[in-house]
Amino acid sequence: MRIAVVGSSGSGKSTLAGRLAAQLGLPHIELDAINWQAGWKDLNSHDPDEFVRRVAAAVGQDAWVSDGNYGRVRDLVWSRATHLVWLDYERRVIMPRVIRRSIARAVDRTELWPGTGNREDWRMWFSKEHPIRWAWDTWARRRAEYAGRIADPRFSHLQVHRLRDPREAEGLAGRLGG
In the 8-state DSSP scheme, what is residue 63? Predict the structure, then answer.
């Protein structure tokens, strides 16, 4: 079983993917952890070939649960996946989540990906790339994009689970066949 968890920034992709991986006994592939290097250097922009190589190696395994939305590797992940879990939550659900998460991270200064030293900083909040603004700005586009991609014949092999409310994630591992 290879499960790709997708959705807007702040929807809870990493949390759900980690939980599913633990419940199903599968490796968890966090695309952000592959992408983000020390000093907030991202492979997706600075070394795209290496980013694709690392993601290809990760999703080349027999079984996994991934989370992330990187366009550069989306076809690669989706073509290898057997299941797609789309967290298609309304903005009114996502925005409080991403704001709470950003506040908590800025206050506790937790390292986001081990070994990178990358921590949330209040000053980052003014960037258009910050998850709060990114979630707001990309929500509608991402929703339309996923709906179109799911209808694409290249991805007809996927068992799609479109969750519209966070409560629908309860018991998902059992519904996935675990």
Answer: S
